[in-house]
Design a protein that fits this description.
By secondary structure, the protein is mainly alpha-helical. It is 67% helix and 4% strand. The strands form two sheets. Strands 2-3-4-1-5 form a five-stranded parallel β-sheet, with helices on both faces. It has a two-stranded antiparallel ribbon with strand order 6-7.
Length: 968
Amino acid sequence: MARQRVTRQELNRRKSARGFVGRTEKLTMFRDNLGRNPQDEDFQYLFHVHGNAGVGKTSLVRQWENAAQAREAQTVYLDDDVHGPLEAMEAIGVQMERQGLPLRAFQDLLATYRLRRHEAETAPQALGAADPSVPGQASVTGTVVAQAGVLGLSMLPVPGAGALAGVLDPQQVAQSLDHSADRLRAMVASRLRSHDDVQLVISPLRVLTPVFLQDLGKAAERRPWVVFFFDVFERTGPLLNEWLSDVLVGEEYGTLPLNVIAVLSGQGRLDARHWADHQRLIWDVPLEVFTHAEARELLAAHGIVDEQVVEVIVRLTGRLPVLVDLLAQTRPQDPTDVEDPADTAVDRFLKWITDPARRDAALACALPLHLDEDVYRAAVPEAAAEQYTWLRGLPFVTGREGRARYHDVVRTPMLRLQRGRSAARWQQQHLRLADAYRRWREEREPGDDPEGQEHRLSEAYHRLCANPATGWPAALPHLVAACDQGIPVLRRWAQILTQAGHDSPSAALTSWGNRLQVAAGDEANGTVTALTHLLAAPELTPAARALAHTLRGRDHRMATRYDLALTDYAAALALAPDLPRAHYGRGETHRLAGQYDQALASLTRAVELEPDEAVNIACRGLTYCALERYDDALTDFTAAIQLHHISDWLVANRGEAHRLAGNYDDALTDFNRAIEIAPLYAWAIASRGQTHRALGRYEDALTDHDRAIQLDPASDWIVAARGETHRLAGNYDDALTDFNRAIQLNPASDWTIASRGQTYRALQRYDDALTDFNRAIELNPNAKWMIGSRGETHRLAGNYDDALTDFDRAIQLNPASDWNIASRGRTCRAVGRYEEAFAELSRAIELDAGDAAYHADMALILHLLGRPEEPDHWRTARELLAAEASAGDSPGGRVRAQLMAVHCALGEWNEAAAELDRFLACGPRVWHIRDALDDLAELDTVLALDPAALGPLRQKLHDAQAALSCQP
């Protein structure tokens, strides 16, 4: 019979298991559990190994890992190299892929998250987060958001900062930290292409974790067991507790495969806030020091059986497994070899290393936080340069995949020993390591990859340990820069600071590290808090202080705390007047706050300082759009596109500038190009729909709106844009449906509420319309078009005094608004103030001579005043309406109905009858026919039309209205 082949890994596991001493009961328990059916009630899937440092938690976990692998389990081991849930999932994915079980969907989505996050960080807010084409609407660009601390969302990177640490009251800052998640969603939605992308960037854990679990479920079908080991959980627990408890025992993210086992291993008890309700699901595995029998067993395995020697070692180590193992490695054969109360256990171990180079190497390698062969060679004397394999074999050196570390129980006294022996050598060794890390980092630049970041962190750690007094000021700019890179990076720097404070030792460093770690625990506002702490440090250089103010200004800006943001930018520029990023940030804040002139000045200065920075130019383009300087906006967008090459959001925003300027063909060209680059770009698709609407292509517009809503169903402005298209097309019921839904999504959207009011007015539901206009104006008191629309509603409802009050206010806000002026003229006519009406309509025609309605209204006033110019204005109105009608049908034949009325006013009854037939052939709705009847009634009241000629026209309209009213 052929022998079954055994792998080298399997032989290594067997050898390791044979050498494992103690904890037999716990190892057996874990092995027995692997033999159970996961559906059995006595099966355990969640273990917590805990105990003080040095009791052998990692050793036990490694044996459990070996036992699992012996059962063909997929195993994953994570330690404190993981700094958050996303890193944990990514590390799990990497290890599983190495073992032939890739988590493809998760890894693809993670890559998409990083790409979309980068897009959200670097793109200015789009023009069209609402509908800027509507006169008087609050600017889209004025609706921005809070920083996504979970994401570390930021607008741009920068350098700089200065001497005004006290410029903001910390209490004021604290009171301002409560910001709106809805605004965050609005900003990110304006930058990304679909609802799914917005969700991914705003809530990456909520989106990524279910996909991770789905992939994990597929992988678990291919192995009998999948076992996760979370070691050093006392360090990673604060970062992983909430997410891990949700994954392992909750239902929020989806189901956990039955054959998944999780082992948490750390020093303390599990955090009661996350695990107390699940204690019955957790198999608690406390580890104490060795029993006497276990200690003797380990010593015997090393050939130490002399009773006196055993007793000395047991007494000296307190049966702490790592120290028992450490001293057992020295193989003392006489009590005097170990009994020296003046020495530490570490020193006693080292004295048994007879090779001085190895002894020095063992001490030197306690200094780095992590070891690999390169770090080893940089740390040790040249005589020991080839002894890395020997060092890795020491009992207190643990690690895998090229990285190793000293056990804290051994490392801490080794550090203390070296600090006490020679302060000069301590400093020299740390500086040597710092220089090595700096050299490795510089060799990797340009670029800021994870390994380069780790080199920078290690360099800072060693400089802080070498001399806290000089290392701390040097570290401050890096801490400020960490706030620019987001909460995870800030957290790593805070941990390094705390570790250096502990190892140096320095109470000041420890205190700073603790404060920054607390700040980093607040995902939403941690960088603001951290920057406020750092600005209080007197050692902060002016350049770093300017950067700190700029970054805090950015975070305030993104949380819509514009006043605080502007205060910070002013402080930054007082310290560094030519800091481009501060000028950009101040300009962007002014823009988002609707202060466009100030925004333009700051952004222009940013462009002068950084003429090749596309974002500065693009944001200035957005500002020009808000100022209706569309030619300047188009120049900027084109320049930004040339610098940035082809960018979907830049091309789309240029398209929006073309749309606002009335260059509809150019707008369509840009929107088509942007959508070609990014087919799921919901904002660009919806904006193309707005362009089709402006061209009267309502079906094309609705097609685009439908597609955009399909991509981003939670976007209130896209739903409202479709509602506006329905309204202009005369589909009032559909318009109301969309406006109601949009208001449900965003109850504070003044534009949507006012647009619903316009729809109610068209349906002659004047009370409902006034309720909406009142609410919209309450939200936006200076929205002139809303005030004018409320005035028009009052006019139609017969509330002429209220109408005149609103028109007066609207004209005061915008003296060049021909529509408001004409509407005021109509109101004056209704109350018999004909001369005043004549003056108003004359002014409206002067502003827009191409509006047929103004000429028709002027003709009525001239008739009432008995002036001979009346026919001229009727003929002008007829010509304008005929030209418009020949250009294409309006919704419901509205223009045809108006042209019919003008023919009636001129006594052209045959032409009026023919136009009526054309109107009815357009398929008007009930309300279109009602409006036509109202127009004829108004004409008859003023002009006293021939009843014999007018009667048949009216009757035909009434018959059509009745027929439509009978339809289901």
